[in-house]
Amino acid sequence: MLKGGDGQLARSVEEFAAASGTPVALDLHAGPVKLPPLIGLRILQIMEEALVNVQKHARASQVRVALYATDRQLELSISDDGQGFQPERARSRKGHFGLCMMRERAKEIGARFTVTARRGQGTKVLVVLPVPLGVVVPCNA
After folding, report:
1. Which range marks the domain in which residue 45 is found?
2. What CATH number should be reported for the domain holding residue 91?
């Protein structure tokens, strides 16, 4: 969970699962963490946009959202078992800005953003944020 978002990440996942009817496995391997407000907001927005893309395009039967935090990095992954796509073609399609927005939000906070997808084999969005010591603080510390 992202502290300050007061569990908003988990709530967003629950709302997606209820609205889409798609089961979501939520793996939080961080416990609650404190992040600067902009970083927490951008991580949440990237996850929500990835879930919107799953609902609109993937035809997935299941989704997995995982958040890992250590004292050196924060890693968010959203993966599905849907139909997949060709990421290089998605960049050139007019009116499709989701991947671009996620990439820009990741860049804004200094994170690496990657999308791995293949036709018929699902999609994985990965955001890795290296953080200076003390920026990601486990709440129980």
Report:
1. 2-138
2. 3.30.565.10
Tell me the pLDDT tens digit for each residue of 52-105. 999 988 899 999 999 988 878 899 999 999 988 866 666 555 556 788 999 999
Decide: residue 95, CB within 10 A, 0-12 exposed, 13-18 middle, 19+ buried: exposed
Residue with tokens 């299941």: 62
- Gap between the Cα atoms of 85 and 23, Å rounded: 21
2 has which bridge partners? 33
- Sign of the C-alpha dihedral computed for residues 111, 72, 49 and 124 taken in this order: positive
Determine the Cα–Cα distance for residues 49 and 29; give it in Å rounded to an integer.
21
Tokens representing 120 are: 């018929």
Q: What is the pLDDT of residues 105-139, one digit of tens each?
A: 999 999 999 999 888 889 999 999 997 665 655 55
State how many domains the chain has.
1
Q: What percent helix, strand, coil does the chain show, rounded to 5? A: 35, 30, 35
